[in-house]
Structure formats: C-alpha cells, structure tokens
Specification:
237 residues, mainly alpha, two-stranded antiparallel sheet, 12 helices, 4 strands
C-alpha cells in the first residue's frame, strides 16, 4: 500500500506502484485490515467507519426481530456486546476526524438507543442517550485517549504508549511552571491535519482539558467513573 495525500498518490506512476519480488508482481491495494482496523491509503478511516457501521446495523436488524421477546435489559446487554463494543474498538485511531466521517457511527448509536428503549424511527434520541448514559461518539473517542494517558501516568500502559507522551514536569524548561503541577503533558506542534490526529498530539490535547483533580487521580476505577461523568456533562450539559 502507498500512503499519502490524494495529490501525492496521483503523482505515483502506474508502473511504479507495483513491486517486483523474484518473478512475482505485488500490486498495491487501497485498503487493508490490520488487527481489525481497516486502514486506507489516504488514512481517512472512511472505509473502516463505513464497514463497521454496516456490521453494526446488521446486528441491530437481527436484534430488532426478537426485541419483544428479549425485553429491555437483555436487549441492552446484547447491544453493548454486539454493537457498542465495535464502535469502541480501537477508536483512538479516529481522533480528530471530522464529524462527517464519524456520522455513520453516530447514526448507529442513535439506532441502538431507539432499539433498546423501543422508540420509533422519528422519535428524538437525545433524551434516550441521556437515559441510557451513553456517550456520543466524539466523547467516546476522548474517553479512550484519556484512559491511555491515565494508564501511562501511573505506569500501567505499554512502553510504546508511554514513549509517545512527555509530562510537563519532565521537561526542564517547564518543570518550574504552574502547569507542571497540574498533570499536563507536552502538546507537540504540528502543521498538518494528519499530525493533529497522531496519538502523541491528540492524546495530550484531550488530557490537558480535564480538571486537575481528575488528571492527578491514581485509581483507575475512580478515574474511569469520574471521566465518564465529566464527558457526559460536557456532551449533554
């Protein structure tokens, strides 16, 4: 696969796109699946979002046919296992994507809420999401990013995650600043849209917006609970 911007990919000559290995020719593809995430050549994640949404709607249609027999509680559990788990899987790679790209995921969330609560297709869904205490898609991504940073801050994240983050307190030029005591992380500078989506940038940006007492929380159980409450209030007021 060749990665690049649309303009950059168009500059690759057709004959240069293939790779010759011994007597075989390896042709490039536009998208590949890696650990369950579909990565496209332009890194838009559009293919991943669309295909995941299709799978979620398939399971929602199956559950709708037996909704009356299952009841609300069992339906909610199955929706969580078959649908919400897919929306949340590796969703940190979706950081800073435009709302238009994530729209299919939000539609899945709305359809799932209507199914669990037995609402009609045209019923408003905001109150249903509040009742179910489900975070919108944007906040679900922020939740995952902040959880990674929290685990890195207490030394429970993989080393490759910890190496991508730098606390203000660990930078000599910033160690004397007030922000060094607030649990903030260094926000690297970048000039590209892809750079803004990188974990090393998106994660500190989401983390630094949290209240200081939440960033300094050492208990993961308490952090997860308080983080969801914070994001829930930010989403629904």
């Amino acid at each position: 696969m060749w990665f690049g911007t649309p303009a950059g990919l168009r500059k690759i000559p057709p004959q240069a796109g293939s790779i010759h290995v011994d007597h075989s020719v390896v042709e490039p593809v536009s998208a590949v699946r890696d650990l369950g995430v579909i990565v496209d050549a332009e890194l838009t994640m559009q293919v991943h979002v669309n295909r995941t949404a299709q799978t979620c709607f398939y399971h929602l249609r199956r559950l709708r046919s037996v909704r009356q027999q299952l009841g609300r509680d069992v339906t909610a559990q199955l929706v969580s296992a078959l649908v919400l788990s897919r929306l949340d899987y590796c969703n940190a790679v979706l950081a800073d994507l435009p709302a238009s790209t994530l729209a299919p995921f939000q539609k899945v969330l709305h359809a799932a809420a209507r199914l669990v609560l037995g609402l009609r297709p045209r019923d408003h869904v905001s109150s249903a999401l509040k009742e179910l205490h489900w975070l919108p898609i944007m906040q679900r991504i922020q939740y995952k990013l902040c959880l990674f940073v929290h685990k890195a801050s207490i030394g429970q994240a993989p080393k490759y995650i910890i190496d991508l983050l730098t606390a203000n307190a660990d930078v000599p030029s910033k160690s004397s600043l007030r922000s060094s005591d607030s649990g903030n992380y260094v926000l690297p500078r970048t000039r590209t849209k892809l750079g803004h989506r990188a974990f090393s940038v998106a994660a500190p940006r989401a983390w630094n917006c949290l209240p200081t007492e939440l960033k300094l929380q050492r208990s993961t159980t308490v952090f997860r609970r308080d983080l969801k409450t914070f994001l829930f209030k930010a989403a629904y007021g």
